[in-house]
From TrEMBL:
One of its GO terms (molecular function) is hydrolase activity. Keywords: Hydrolase. This is HAD-IIA family hydrolase. It comes from Pseudokineococcus basanitobsidens. SUPFAM superfamilies: HAD-like (SSF56784). PANTHER family: 4-NITROPHENYLPHOSPHATASE-RELATED, D-GLYCEROL 3-PHOSPHATE PHOSPHATASE. InterPro entries: HAD-like_sf, HAD-SF_hydro_IIA, HAD_sf.
Length: 331
């Protein structure tokens, strides 16, 4: 899968940090191109870590799920926001402390690994609350968390993703459940996962890393917060319109259709007398709107449009341009 010119996006990278939901799989469905992209990294001896905000499962179960979706993986290649949250709690409340865990089994496992004692009731006197995603989390669990937080427990959220990519579409994420506890308590949690720094910095461990993901507010913003380059792929939550409207801290360094982009040459976008150019695609600004002057590949058109929109700022994105780019959202 290497680019014919011999220069690829990962040539100077020591580790690739891959998001999972929407990047490698969507629920139980593999994302097209993901298995091939990961296999090509391994073929060249490049370490791959799966770094996920989804805190519901322990690393062993995440690795099993990866294998079922066609991507061989071992537990030591998985980094979860539950692990990052438990490390943060150990630093704050010390080993042996009781922690009220909300979420799937991954939250409790991560706490035990850090020498913390998981509990499930505010009546157990927890020093902290670790709230992560779990598909079975409901009113009773969220209420126990609210009781504990109101009683003075330190509140750590593994992540605040409002939605998750699933086979049927976008489902409620941990951020939506955190919002319920926030509304009930008036408190604000510490956040361990993306876009905060602990999860990605811990995974990179000082190495030259490339962060890959489908979400701008977590994967890309987290990479920027950690001082790491990022690749956005069009296989998950955020669509073309969202990318064009991205705030400065959410703008990726590279754009790709899927993980195959790791093994192709980085695309160069430049400005000339005709507008913003990438490959054969040219986008100009005319009468306050983006205008596609020439053709080219869809991804090059998107890159040129993003370069123009991000540089000019207050410029309209016409419907006809979005319609041309719509196939990227259908992946």
């Amino acid at each position: 899968m290497a680019d014919a010119a011999g220069t690829t996006l990962v040539d100077d990278v020591e580790v690739v940090l891959l998001d999972l939901d929407g990047t490698v799989y969507a629920g139980g469905r593999p994302v097209p191109g993901a298995a091939e992209g990961v296999a090509a990294c391994r073929a060249r001896g490049l370490p791959v870590l799966f770094v996920t905000n989804n805190a519901s499962l322990p690393p062993e179960d995440v690795a099993d799920h990866l294998r079922r979706t066609g991507v061989p993986a071992s537990p030591d290649e998985v980094r979860t926001s539950s692990q990052a949250g438990a490390r943060l709690l150990r630093e704050r409340v010390g080993p042996g402390a009781r922690v009220l865990v909300v979420g799937g089994p991954g939250t409790a496992v991560a706490c035990r690994e850090q020498g913390l004692e998981p509990v499930t009731s505010a009546d157990d006197g927890p020093a902290a609350v670790l709230q992560g995603f779990g598909p079975e989390v409901g009113w009773a669990e969220l209420t126990e968390a609210a009781y504990a937080i109101r009683a003075g427990a330190l509140w750590v959220a593994t992540n605040t993703d409002t939605v998750l990519a699933r086979e049927r579409g976008l489902a409620l994420g941990n951020g939506s459940l955190v919002a319920a506890v926030r509304t009930a308590t008036g408190a604000e949690p510490l956040v361990a996962g993306k876009p905060q720094r602990p999860l990605l910095e811990g995974a990179a461990a000082g190495r030259r890393a490339l962060v890959v993901g489908d979400r701008l507010d977590t994967d890309v913003a987290g990479a920027r917060a950690a001082g790491l380059p990022s690749l956005w792929v069009s296989t998950g939550v955020d669509d073309v319109r969202r990318l064009l409207d991205a705030a400065p801290h959410e703008r990726p360094d590279h754009l790709g259709a899927d993980l195959g982009a790791l093994h192709r040459a980085p695309a160069a976008t430049r400005r000339d007398d005709h507008g913003w150019r990438c490959g054969d695609a040219v986008v100009a600004v005319d009468a306050g709107a983006l205008v596609a002057r020439d053709g080219g590949e869809l991804l090059d058109l998107l890159r040129a449009a993003c370069a123009a929109r991000w540089e000019v700022g207050d410029v309209r994105v016409p419907d006809d341009l979005l319609e041309r780019l719509a196939p990227l959202d259908a992946r």
